[in-house]
Each structure stands twice: as structure tokens, then as C-alpha cells.
Design brief:
Low-confidence stretches: 1-6
Mean pLDDT: 80
Distance between the termini: 18 Å
Largest sheet: none
Shape: elongated
Number of helices: 3
Structural class: mainly alpha
Oligomer: single chain
Helix content: over 70%
Length: 85
Amino acid sequence: MGDDQNESGPIDPQEALRLIDDARGRLRTAIWALHGMHQDVNALTVDDLADIEQLLTEILDNSLTPAFESISQAVGGDSGAVTTH
């Protein structure tokens, strides 16, 4: 999904703000989930960690990276490289 946006050029500023706002909400969800997990570490499974990793990767790839690249182009900055695992 994010790759299609990147190939068609920079996104408009309103879309970048929407993506950042979406990322904020999803990060709150991840924080809430992690908070609940550390309350009962015995209930934590490998699948739970994998789900959190997937959520964070999606936030980075689908919201933060396209918004960052668009804003970087708008202000004339270097977008740099983002490494994911």
C-alpha cells in the first residue's frame, strides 16, 4: 500500500498529516497493549510479540515513512534511509 504512494510521487500535506495522526493512534494502541502485557508477563506469548512487531512495522511503512518523505521533499530535506527488519 505505501509503496504505491511512493511511486506516484509525494503525497499532499493534508494526507501526510492524516497519516501521522493515524500513526499516533496506532502507536497509542501498541503502547496500551504493551502496558497490558507487562502487567502479566506469564500471559505473554511469542505470537503477542509478533503481533506488536507487525503493528509497529505497518505504522512505520504505511504511515510514518510516506509522511516523512513527503514532508522532507516539501522542506527540501534529505529523506535518508530507513532500515526495517
